[in-house]
Design goal:
- The protein has one domain.
- Helix 4 packs across helix 5.
- The longest helix has 35 residues.
- It has 131 residues and is an all-alpha fold.
């Protein structure tokens, strides 16, 4: 098990300077753009912060996760496809766990981290602007 974790850590770190490293910037930027759009829509609809609501409101969790998944699914699958190509080029093998970790980090994590703060900033800007 220790060997597997060491390989995963080494392989994840190797992606930074390896081929196709442009995706490490491009895919999070697309996810962030989607999060900004959704966060602004949340602010207009007076909805609470996205990630915080997922954590604290079990009743709304399922619907919010489904809505978020619809927004980032294409970016997630693009991240999976590009990482498959990367792994075949570099390792000549596909490591599914690394594939999912990278896809989550490039697509889902930025979306989760940005949507709520954008909502709060847009809400504050809207309140200040309307005053």
């Amino acid at each position: 098990m220790e060997d597997v974790l060491a390989r995963v850590w080494e392989n994840l770190g190797g992606r930074i300077g390896g081929p196709m490293s442009f995706r490490l910037v491009l895919q999070p930027m697309v996810a962030i753009a989607l999060a900004i759009k959704a966060g602004r829509e949340d602010a207009r609809a007076h909805r609470p912060a996205y990630f915080w609501t997922i954590i604290t409101d079990p009743d709304a969790r399922h619907d919010l996760l489904r809505e978020g998944w619809k927004a980032v699914a294409q970016v997630f699958f693009l991240a999976v496809a590009i990482d498959v190509v990367y792994q075949l080029m570099v390792f000549r093998w596909i490591y599914p766990a690394e594939l999912l970790i990278i896809a989550f980090l490039l697509a889902c994590a930025p979306y989760l981290l940005v949507r709520g703060p954008v909502n709060r900033i847009a809400t504050a800007f809207g309140e200040r602007r309307g005053a």
